[in-house]
């Protein structure tokens, strides 16, 4: 088992090295994050001034900005998996991938994680510059460590969601429209643009039954409002969704491969 896993970790290491070789290009793309965060900062500054309160839904202005920094770092740092899978299917490269002595899903997972683990810390570093000079450096204590733990599960769940969607390319080929819808669900009911505490009660209750909150909201909330009991509950919810979508991705993949063999693709 150790030898089998070693080859996947090697794939991850190679992906990390490839991204570090072009780290300046990744950093340039991360600068766009500053524009987004600055716009949000201005909007929330006006909102807090209009409300005339130091906190909204338990969040201060500092908390809100850092929440957005953590959330945006994850969302902007994950690779475009659907484009890659779609191209492999449309160009026929999927046939070569299947001949490799490696599990197709695990291969893409470690490549995905290797790229994300370079881009997300860079995004976080760039966003932290704005946060430090505008609202100050926060004292979140265990929140930073909690963000790392839940963040890894968040990236894994995001991969599985995207993989389930991307594997639909076996049937529809064009999946970028589906990716657009999924991203918008993560942006909204996933809590990327707004903490779920600030949602209307009915919308929040619906969002809590969906997997999207486990991608961005859990990690960002843990960072700014760390609570040990809530942390344990969030991890269990993430693991449950990960198990479900891992099974679903495997089932879709196996069915798609059978279809590929039957059609002679």
3D architecture notes:
This protein has 265 residues and is mainly alpha-helical. The chain has one domain. Helices cover 77% and strands 0% of the residues. It is built from 13 helices and no strands. It has helices spanning 2-21, 23-30, 32-51, 61-77, 81-91, 94-98, 104-134, 142-166, 169-172, 176-187, 201-207, 217-224, 228-263. Helix 3 crosses helix 7 (104-134) and helix 5 (81-91) packs parallel to helix 8. The longest helix has 36 residues, at 228-263. The chain is globular. The chain starts with a helix and ends with a helix. Mean pLDDT is 87; it is low at 261-265.
Supply the helix-strand structural class.
Answer: mainly alpha
Mean pLDDT: 87
- Total helical segments: 13
SS strand fraction: under 5%
**Low-confidence parts, pLDDT < 50 over ≥5 residues?**
261-265
Rg measurement, Å: 20 Å
Query: In percent, how helical is the residue content?
Result: over 70%
Question: How do the helices and strands follow one another from N- to C-terminus?
Answer: HHHHHHHHHHHHH
Distance between the termini: 32 Å
Q: How many extended strands?
A: 0
Number of structural units classed as domains? 1
Q: Specify the overall morphology.
A: globular
The largest β sheet comes out as: none
Concise summary:
This protein has 265 residues and is an all-alpha fold. Helix content is 77%, strand content 0%.
């Amino acid at each position: 088992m150790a030898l089998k896993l070693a080859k996947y970790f090697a794939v991850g290491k190679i992906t990390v090295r490839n991204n570090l070789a072009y780290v300046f290009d990744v950093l340039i793309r991360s600068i766009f994050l500053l524009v987004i965060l600055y716009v949000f900062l201005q909007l929330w500054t006006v909102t807090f001034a209009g409300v005339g309160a130091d906190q909204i839904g338990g969040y201060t202005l500092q908390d809100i900005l850092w929440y957005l920094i953590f959330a945006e770092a994850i969302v902007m740092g994950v690779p475009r998996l659907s484009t890659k899978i779609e191209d492999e299917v449309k160009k026929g490269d999927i046939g070569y991938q299947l001949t490799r002595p490696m599990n197709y899903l695990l291969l893409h997972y470690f490549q995905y994680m290797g790229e994300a683990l370079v881009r997300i810390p860079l995004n976080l570093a760039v966003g932290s510059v704005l946060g430090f000079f505008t609202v100050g450096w926060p004292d979140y204590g265990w929140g930073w460590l909690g963000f790392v733990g839940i963040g890894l599960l968040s990236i894994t769940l995001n991969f599985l969601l995207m993989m389930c969607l991307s594997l639909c390319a076996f049937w529809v080929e064009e999946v970028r429209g589906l990716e657009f819808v999924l991203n918008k669900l993560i942006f909204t009911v996933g809590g990327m643009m707004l903490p779920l505490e600030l949602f209307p009660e009915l919308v929040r209750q619906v969002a809590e039954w969906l997997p999207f909150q486990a991608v961005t909201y859990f990690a960002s909330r843990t960072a700014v409002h760390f609570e040990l009991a809530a942390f344990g509950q969030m991890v269990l919810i993430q693991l449950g969704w990960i198990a479900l979508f891992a099974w679903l991705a495997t089932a879709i993949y196996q069915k798609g491969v059978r279809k590929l063999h039957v059609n002679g693709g």
